[in-house]
Amino acid sequence: MSIPIRIAGIGFEVPETVITNDDLTKIIDTSDEWIKTRTGIERRHVLSGNESAVDIGIRAAEKAIKKSKIDVKEIDLIIAAASVEAHAYPSTACEVQAAIGAVNAACFDITAACSGLIYGLGIARAFIKSQFAKNVLIVATDAISRSLDWTDRTTCVLFGDGAGAMVLTISDDEQDDILAVDLKAEGHLGHFITMPIAGKNCPLVEPNDEEKMFVKMDGKEVYKYVVTKLPGYIEECVSKSGLKMNEIDYLVPHQANMRIIEALEKRLEFSPENVISNIKDYANTSAASIPIALVEAVESGKMKLPCSAILTGFGAGMTVGTAVVKLREGIV
Ligand code: ACO
Q: Is the pLDDT assigned to residue 198 strictly greater than 80?
């Protein structure tokens, strides 16, 4: 018999510092009007000082665990979805483990860029269903601001920092909250969004790579890819869930561009009040954007629990992850 899974807690955290579109006009040739019209973004939170993606990830994790009411020592797996980390190892998952005291958890990181939370959800689900884990913490945290070229107006206006976390456990009432998960990757399109890390290094072999390592993105190609491919991928996942599109209460898409979100809304025939977006206040927080949007929507009363929802993320890789889930009262 398939083990039913409960989504037990969700939390998020963003750094305190806020940069508005007007602030950006002091360092690049742009305008509030251009950014708002093309993307829907008005402001974003960014890390400062010694604070890192791990720090906000820890706080998001603590909130999700508190909501889940699961003893932190009962968590047996931590998956961190993180692309911009202070260092490659120890992993973000290990650092979160040490900070929260999840002493019985196995830990690893995954790289699926903005699809990271949903990839994490798919992996967590597989671990629980195959009885390798009972209580899984997923932490999606990124500090993209630290890998942006702040002289490149085509990328630096688009992103913000943030963290989201989710706790999954075995359901004690037979309801499976994860109705379907579908993960896709199209590696041949990897050049659409890139962020190099280590370059040439050994002086005995070749000169050091001095080039700074920033996010580069072909925004037009990403835009075309997402609006062409994503609706079909979402429909495919919904068809596996046993629900019909019009039976699902909310659409919670990755927050990359308001125009992409509106295109999805139209194509999937959702009404605007059932499509969750807060890109205006956070910009694109990579893998954290879905939990940030979800928790805020519940807290503001836009999203009512219990409900069903489509969570869908897309990003570098190219990767796409979609899940059809049930969200119970009290998880936020
Ligand atoms: N301010 C003012 N002008 C700008 C800015 C800016 N910040 N950025 C670009 N422009 C200019 C361009 O130089 C160009 O000028 P030109 O016509 O003189 O050459 C003009 O504005 C139009 O630029 P486009 O690139 O055609 O603008 P577009 O309407 O395509 O919008 C955008 C660009 C917002 C990036 C859009 O393509 C987009 O959102 N793409 C999707 C991005 C995305 O979803 N990423 C998600 C994944 S991220 C991840 O996984 C890490």
A: no
Q: How far apart are alpha carbons 146 and 150 in whole angstroms?
A: 9
| Catalytic residue status for 21 | no
**pLDDT, tens digit, for every residue of 138-167?**
999 999 999 999 999 999 999 999 999 999
Distance 139 CA to ligand 1 centre (A): 29
- Tokens in use for 59? 């706080």
Q: Which atom of ligand 1 is closest in space to residue 39's alpha carbon?
A: 34
Residue ranges of the chain that CATH labels 3.40.47.10: 5-170, 178-327
In the prediction, which pLDDT does 196 show?
85
Can you read off the two tokens belonging to residue 297? Answer: 């929507």
Q: Report which protein residue has its CA nearest ligand 1's atom 12.
A: 154
C-alpha of residue 160 to centroid of ligand 1, in Å: 16
What angle is formed at CA 130 by the lines to CA 125 and CA 134, rounded to 5 degrees? 65
Over the chain, what is the mean pLDDT?
96
CATH fold for domain 178-327: Peroxisomal Thiolase; Chain A, domain 1 (3.40.47)
Q: Helix %, strand %, coil % for the chain, to 5? A: 40, 25, 40
pTM of the model: 0.96
Q: Ligand 1: distance of its center to the CA of 192 in Å?
A: 13
